[in-house]
Amino acid sequence: MTTQKPLLLALATGQASLLDEPVRMLIGGELADAASGATFPTYNPATGAVIANVAAGAAADVDRAVQAARAAFGHPTWAKLTPASRGELLWRLADLIQRDADVLARLETTNNGRPYRNTRNGDLPGIIKHFRYHAGWATKLHGTTVPVSTPNHFVYTVREPMGVCGCIIPWNYPLNMVSWKIAPALAAGNTVILKPAEETPLTALWIAELALEAGFPPGVVNVVTGMGETAGAALVAHPNVDKLAFTGSTAVGRKIVEAAAGNLKRISLELGGKSPNVIFADADVTAAARQAVWAILSNAGQNCCAGSRLFVQRHVADQVLDTVVSTMERLRVGNGLDPETQVGPLVSQEQLSRVSGFVAAGRDAGAELLLGGVRPAGVADGGFFLAPTVFGKVQDEMEIVREEIFGPVVCALEFDDWDELIARANDTPYGLASAIWTRDINKAHRFAQAIQAGTVWINTYNMFDPAAPFGGYKQSGYGREMGEAVYELYTQTKTVWVGLNGVR
Hints:
By secondary structure, the protein is an alpha/beta fold. It has 2 domains: about 5-270 and about 480-490, Aldehyde Dehydrogenase, Chain A, domain 1 (3-Layer(aba) Sandwich); about 275-465, Aldehyde Dehydrogenase, Chain A, domain 2 (3-Layer(aba) Sandwich), CATH 3.40.309. It has 17 helices and 22 strands. A 7-stranded mixed sheet has the order 14-15-16-13-12-18-19, sandwiched between helices. Helix 4 (about 85-100) runs antiparallel to helix 6 (about 115-135).
């Protein structure tokens, strides 16, 4: 096949600031323009400038990708491949990602804004581990024998792939989300159609080309770029997609559940959050406050499990807020390619406007703006920047406390006693993540039992591992990413009965 990696390489290395030819999709092992010929622009969030025009896939392109994925799923080059061989392919893909890690990190930062040092030193090693972890699972997806009560019968189960999997990923962690979705899907023997967010399509296309280089047959990994309302909606509704995995907002998740009902496709959803991050007076208060900064500012707050509701025991509240504000004031906000940058831009003008609207709503509601809420000094003109923002004197019923802001905005809430805290922390439609900071081990485990969230961090935050399941309670979604639990999403169980009395 032809390749567009040299095109993307020029962008990642700064040899080109705007590509002079469109970026194409990858369907059935071949690069493809949209059937309509349409394209859409993608931007560098640090400058606000268009960096590429990308094929705007729609229903016809999704249908072509589904046909390619269906054909690959049934073709002997994939269907008859041993689990061990699938694992070897995944391991080889991990090696190629490791080889290209510098370029991938730069391309991610150019298209997403996340600081290069975070992507290169944090995300990429985790992504490589993720593929290698699931490479090992390819040979571990076994069935069981079942001791049934009926005499003279032998019963066993086998786990089989779902088939064609549609994977729709968000713009906040594009590389991570690619690995979270396709690694287990491929380990289980499925084929994949990946629909990256229109804001950040570039690194997904690089990974798809690496999959071909690793030896995955054409059609096993396909990427359709385009708008959510067109390409995404067509993938959700397509009758020949067997399973759909979506990460994104709760509002879109609801629409996906409705649209996917046509063929009752299996769905997993990892949705929004409004995570409580709780600091008790008996914690190492200064250390906890400093960690609370990164609980909210990781990826400029564009993090579904961001610690955006900071609950602080009342008599240490001033100390915590002083530390949070003074720490944030010293942070370097700027272009993610600058090695000194600690907080990058928001992903788009639309997102900047949305977050700025929440800041204005908080001030109008009477919350005290302790820091930020404005464009930071010294950043590039046109970039989508907002300074780290802290609100105090916040009430639970305020919009900035109820709604997911998805930006560098933390709301500090004071509490007095245990029962009050738990009731308020759980008073949200979301349930993705949570954290507690305390030296009291009993309190820590009581919190873990009482809180309604899929992840509980104790004296830590934003920790992930390929072996540890991740997902939400309540309207933060259902199904789990990572760990053994993810294979409930990508396999189905077949039960086989064998009569031992012979044919009669």
